[in-house]
């Protein structure tokens, strides 16, 4: 089976959606598929920095490529919002027996609704340009691909429900297939007990953004410090300079906070080795790879119910689901873990077991089965 994976990003193993696209392609290749890619690297060769204009042009660059190359492929697996011009033209050049899958790395519509809600609540400001493209035309493009593709792959059940109930995509044309864990996160050692009297070691993994729960990180650290809870909070992958991030915390709490602005992706298991809890107060996630990777590393999550969290975090068994923006609930969950280290260890062990089978090998198998089922129902071009 020959597969084209298309994505509106440069391919980079250290980036979110591009990294998982490469991982999926490698896992499909290990199953015997021939896998090619079409990305910004192909549409804009030699260009290192990309803008909204490049994203706007990408569906047409992809269409030009497919006019030349579609006949080579059994399956075209393309990110949402990108293949609609080619589909509207009638899929010229495609094989009579082929499958077109559109893949979401986080449904833009649910992300947009959360972004607008946070803007209304005063957590962030949206540019006047936002409704013109990302909050307008781009949403139209995504819906077009969801409605016109042979099948859509989404990352979580909330996005699937939204696509069916709000966008009119038939449920039979949707599958929820999550991401897999890289080899570096498989077979990691089991958690070890906390040292007597040691502070609760809390990690946050993600960008220093309002949508990632930046305000809650500051508020929770402030409350834990005020309540006399012994803790450390390490922020991994903020993307912002250490001094800028630390300045957001009050002086007393700041002494308990450490910032790691950037790290090589392969280093994350080592970085998380000495942590105990993942605090994941995100407002919006397509999947939440950091959540699953942290659980695989033996951290128990205190997470909002975003992305894959409702599927892997079982309250009181593998961690805690806490309401978005509810600082009191988040503080209470972390304080309870600090006070009962025996229970914390049990939760950490259960969290690690809960994601143990989420491998790219399994994801590739499920994806191949989907491809094969679509090809057994050929589409006449």
From TrEMBL:
Keyword tags: Glycosyltransferase, Transferase
Residues annotated as domain Glycosyl transferase family: 201-352
Entry annotated with the keyword Cytoplasm: no
Family matches, as CDD domains: GT4_PimA-like
Domain Glycosyltransferase subfamily 4-like N-terminal: 20-184
Taxonomic superkingdom: Bacteria
Oxidoreductase recorded as keyword: no
A Pfam family the protein falls into: Glyco_transf_4
Family per similarity comment: Belongs to the glycosyltransferase group 1 family. Glycosyltransferase 4 subfamily.
Protein name as annotated: Glycosyltransferase involved in cell wall bisynthesis
Organism, scientific name: Myxococcus virescens
């Amino acid at each position: 089976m020959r597969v084209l994976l298309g994505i509106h990003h440069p391919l980079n193993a250290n980036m979110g959606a591009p990294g998982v696209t490469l991982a999926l392609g490698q896992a499909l290749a290990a199953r015997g598929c021939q896998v090619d890619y079409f990305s910004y690297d192909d549409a804009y060769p030699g260009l290192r920095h990309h803008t909204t204009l490049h994203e706007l042009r990408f569906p047409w660059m992809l269409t030009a490529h497919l006019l030349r190359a579609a006949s080579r492929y059994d399956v075209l697996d393309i990110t949402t919002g990108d293949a609609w011009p080619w589909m509207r033209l009638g899929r010229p050049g495609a094989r009579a027996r082929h499958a077109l899958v559109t893949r979401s790395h986080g449904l833009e519509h649910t992300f947009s609704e959360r972004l607008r809600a946070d803007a209304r609540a005063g957590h962030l400001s949206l540019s006047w340009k936002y409704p013109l493209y990302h909050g307008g035309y781009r949403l139209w493009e995504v819906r077009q691909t969801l409605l016109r593709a042979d099948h859509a792959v989404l990352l979580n059940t909330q996005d699937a429900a939204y696509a069916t109930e709000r966008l009119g995509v038939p449920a039979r044309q949707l599958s929820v297939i999550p991401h897999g864990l890289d080899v570096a996160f498989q077979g990691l050692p089991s958690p070890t007990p906390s040292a007597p009297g040691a502070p609760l070691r809390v990690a946050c993994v993600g960008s220093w953004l309002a949508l990632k729960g930046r305000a809650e990180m500051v508020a929770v650290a402030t409350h834990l410090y005020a309540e006399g809870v012994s803790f450390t909070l390490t922020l991994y992958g903020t993307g912002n300079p250490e001094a800028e991030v630390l300045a957001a915390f009050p002086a007393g709490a700041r002494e308990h906070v450490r910032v790691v602005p950037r790290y090589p992706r392969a280093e994350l298991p080592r970085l998380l080795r000495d942590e105990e809890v993942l605090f994941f107060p995100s407002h919006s996630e397509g999947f939440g790879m950091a959540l699953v990777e942290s659980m695989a590393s033996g951290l128990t999550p205190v997470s909002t119910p975003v992305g894959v969290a409702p599927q892997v975090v079982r309250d009181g068994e593998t961690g805690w689901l806490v309401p978005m923006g509810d600082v009191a609930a988040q503080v209470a969950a972390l304080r309870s873990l600090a006070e009962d280290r025996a229970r914390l260890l049990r939760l950490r062990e259960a969290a690690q077991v809960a994601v143990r089978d989420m491998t790219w090998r399994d994801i590739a198998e499920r994806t191949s089965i989907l491809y094969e089922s679509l090809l057994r129902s050929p589409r006449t071009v």
